[in-house]
Amino acid sequence: QVQLVESGGGLVPAGGSLRLSCAASGLTFSSYAMGWFRQAPGKEREFVGTISYGGYSTWYADSVKGRFTISRDNAKNTVYLQMNSLKPEDTGVYYCAAKAGGRSRWLEASYDYWGQGTQVTVSS
To answer: What separation, in Å, do the N-terminal and C-terminal C-alpha atoms of the chain show?
Structure first.
């Protein structure tokens, strides 16, 4: 049974930082690209960024580029999302997801497994 469990969310003032973690189990972690998505209240879930299965390549949404960094530790089956210079518009539930194969990294439908999400709230 595949499980992705996010942690590290919380309430932070604008300009602050948070580090999210996503611990994976039940899959060969190093064979999956890992993505982060978020969903703001009243909005659709959107792509935040992704990291290749080996950790050598990352891609980000323009809205977070330069502020967020994705990394992974395949020995710990964990992917991280370091979020700096947070803005109120970064508020939302953050999800990690795992993707096998060569489907588009930008699309939700490409991802095979999802976590339950962790809430991030950035106060102004």
So the answer is: 40
Q: What is the pLDDT of residues 43-101, one digit of tens each?
A: 999 999 999 999 999 999 999 999 999 999 999 999 999 999 999 999 999 999 999 97
CB 46 within 8 A of CB 37: yes
- The C-alpha atoms of residue 32 and residue 23 are separated, in whole angstroms, by 13
Give the whole-angstrom CA distance, residue 94 versus residue 106.
15
Model confidence at 42: pLDDT above 90: yes
d(CA 12, CA 15): 8
Task: Give residue 92's identity as a one-letter amino acid code.
Answer: G
Q: Which residues contact 75 (CB under 8 A, 6 or more apart)?
A: none
Q: Is 82 left (phi over 0), alpha (psi -120 to 50) or beta?
A: beta
Query: What own/partner pairs with CB < 8 Å and gap ≥ 24 does 61-69 have?
Result: 63/89, 64/90
